Structures are given as C-alpha cells and as structure tokens.
Amino acid sequence: MDWIQAWLPYFYQYGVGGFFFFLAIFVAYDRKVLNLSRKDDRRLLRGILIGFAFYLVMHGLWIASVMLLSD
After folding, report:
1. CA distance 24 to 7
2. What is the 3-state secondary structure (H, E, C) of 50-68?
3. How would DSSP label each residue in 3-62?
4. What does pTM read for this prediction?
5. pLDDT 10s per residue in the chain (71 long)?
6. Which domain range does residue 20 map to?
7. How many domains does the chain have?
C-alpha cells in the first residue's frame, strides 16, 4: 500500500469533514445556540473537541501502524 492510498482518505475525511464540523460549531455559536458563558455549553464544546481530536489521533495512529507493519 502506498502513501497516497493510505493517507489521502484520512486527510480528506478530517480536512473536509473537519471544515464542516467547525463550521457547524461556529454557526451554533453565532446563532447563540452555543453560549460559552454557561458551564454546560463549555463542557459540551470541550467534549466535542476532545472527541474529534481523539478520533483524529487514533485514526492516524492506526493508519501509521498498518503502514509500518505492511513493509
């Protein structure tokens, strides 16, 4: 498996998907649905961002491990 086959879908998923993910958070904040002065909303936002980062890192590690083991 070459580099492009392994990493291009990853960059597409977290690049394009991340754009819409952060756009949705911005729209929620802009329309006052997400109010950062409330503790529950800050906690929710923190959980969403940590979850996104967790899946981004774990998916990257999974791809990297497969690339290293397939050589």
Report:
1. 25
2. HHHHHHHHHHHHHHHHHHH
3. HHHHHHHHHHHHHHHHHHHHHHHHHHHHTTSS-TTSHHHHHHHHHHHHHHHHHHHHHHHH
4. 0.85
5. 788 898 999 999 999 999 999 999 999 999 999 999 999 999 999 999 999 999 999 999 999 999 999 86
6. 3-69
7. 1
